[in-house]
Amino acid sequence: MSQLTESHTPAPPTPPAPPSRVDGEPRNDRPIRQRRIAPEMVAELGGSAVSALAMVWLVFNLSGVSAPLGFGFCWLAAFLTVYGLLCWRRHGVVAMKDRLATVAIWVGALLAFIPLVAVISYVVLKGARAVFSDFPHFFYADFSNYTLSAPTSAVGAGAAIVGTVEQVGLATIITVPLGMLTATYVVDHRNFFSRVVSHVVDAMSGSPAIIAGLFVYLLWVVPHHQTGKSGLAAALALSVMMLPIVTRAAQEVIAIVPGSLREASLALGSPQWRSVLRVILPTARVGLVTAVILGVARIAGETAPVLFVAGGSPNYNWNPFSGQQDDLPLRVYQMIFQAGGNARNDAWGVSFVLVLVVLTLFLLARLIGASGPGRSLAPWRVLRRGPQRSGR
Amino acid sequence: MTTIDRLQARDTGDPSPPFGEPGVGTEPSSLLATNVSAWFGNNKVLERVSLSMEPGKVTALIGPSGCGKSTFLRILNRMHELIPSAALAGSVVLDGVDVYGPELRVTETRLRIGMVFQRANPFPSMTIAQNVLSGLRLSGTKVANPDALVQECLERAGLWRETRNRLNESGAALSGGQLQRLCIARALAVRPRVLLMDEPCSALDPISTSVIEDTIRELCTDVTIVVVTHNMQQAQRVSHNCALFLVDGEGMPGHIVETGPTDQVFNDPVDPRTSDYVHGRFG
Ligand SMILES: Nc1ncnc2c1ncn2[C@@H]1O[C@H](COP(=O)(O)OP(=O)(O)O)[C@@H](O)[C@H]1O
Ligand SMILES: [Mg+2]
User: Fold this and answer.
1) DSSP letters of B23-36?
2) In this predicted complex, what is the ipTM?
3) What is the pLDDT of residues A351-363, one digit of tens each?
4) Would you say residue A269 lies in a domain?
5) Which of A92, A127, A162 is the last residue before a domain boundary?
6) Which domains does chain B possess?
7) In chain B, which end has fewer C-beta atoms inside a 10 angstrom radius, N or C?
8) Which of B36, B40, B82 for mutating ligand 1's site (highest number of atoms within 8 Å of CB)?
9) Which of B42, B49, B65, B67 to mutate to test the pocket of ligand 1 (most atoms within 8 A of CB)?
């Protein structure tokens, strides 16, 4: 603003009274920063909040009502009213609307945030006690010592962790090639069949999880009689869940690879499959890895598909191909329905471990998703990534 | 400047790697297009174009936009058929072999007839060196001495001096002109016999343009070059032969109005429309 005025006036050599605002100032430019949060605004907000709180508290106390939720809502309403009146008196109607809208948006965002924080912190609070009372023990012990009266320190989620890791790993191995191939096909070939495939993928991603379990139960477990219940069966059910997630995400990522790269590779005499393998997929690599990890994080906590195909087992079973296997969501499910004792506590502990596993996967996804093109995706590189080297 | 660097590099006896194996050979080929017509859907965009591109010569295609120069170029190395609605008629013969016939596979045709696009399109997932070698990897060709090949191709594309110390970095940090020369190096690495260039300098500054023109002039002893350009001076500077494409009116297919040695097309044209076009009187 002041720069503009300055450049328009033809450099007056200290004239007596030009209407310019830069008049008395030195000719150095000063950056103008819009203060995002003015102290005045903070005072208005804080004042309104406090006065609204006082008012509502007074009313509730006098009438002897005790209703925390209602208290919260009344406070919010009173706050908005007081703040709106204040802004209207001090800044006018337009400013009032603007401020009220801003506050409403913030409040809405915070309200939406509450359930998320509540769920996570509740699990952490409840579960941490079980997990950290005897620290590493809970991570490697299994449930073979479980009795009705056994303390939480006698059991652990070790067997369930092994099961989850193996089942999710197997599901990933099955899903990733299939998902990548499907996505590539659907993006590269625009014809009737590819549209059918695309719609089927969409429909699959909306199908209930229990159906995936039922599907594998009928097609795999029943034909193998009771020996069919195994980690592999669970992995198959999880694959049914994961395939559409990975395919959908990969489709989006592959579709934004510029067509010019595809042309460039074909013009070099490449067969189409090599062009896909060496140019298109590597170009989309970062997005593809994120897609896979999001799929993994999503299925790691699924209970319904594994409910009647994994079998569950209190003991370690390292072999996913034979014998029943435990996993984390299934163990939580089973412990919740145990009568009395420490079962609930144990369930909280296992839930906590599950949240840890999923959280780790999400963090990994964020880390990898943040890397630019041409960057290595090897985890050790991602983790100790220095300042960007290529962009000078 | 870069050219001089390159000449010096040769004089001081930089070991010039043996010129052979990958791709198909060292001799430039002749390319003959006969009665080529092209359609997009029901829209005919090229009408019976015949053009002989002589071995070891630079042929320039000039003409206003939309008259089918790119389409013609893409027909020469079978890129045209990648567009679903596209169709064509006529024949294209490379050294006596019909590129649309059964003797040559599509991939083989494209390996022999390389292409450089209007917008530089290096592979972002690869380093500079990998970009140069990408054609070999993509066509499944083994190469005995990749480092020497990288150096040779970058030298021939006039990019060696600028990139020799960062071959293993991403190509993303190069300038527009350098990226285009990287694409030329990439196209050269498979040792094509013909190189098609579709307005290779249209997005570049004058200095990068002159470097690429130097490159074209030097390359033409090894490869037959066909270059599309909107720049009349450039056509005169780099080409031996010249073909002018025009359309007669809205919605009409493009066709060749005049072809011949560049000198003749520019200074002593047969068709009056040629003289009008090259002197900027229309189009
Ligand atoms: N992919 C396409 N689909 C449909 N029409 C196209 C396509 N590409 C080019 N055309 C049409 O073909 C004609 C010739 O285009 P082009 O060969 O790109 O011309 P030039 O390169 O000489 O500017 C134009 O009329 C253009 O609209
Ligand atoms: Mg064009």
Assistant:
1) SS-SS---EEEEEE
2) 0.86
3) 999 998 888 877 8
4) yes
5) A127
6) 2-15+26-120+196-278 (3.40.50.300)
7) N
8) B40
9) B67
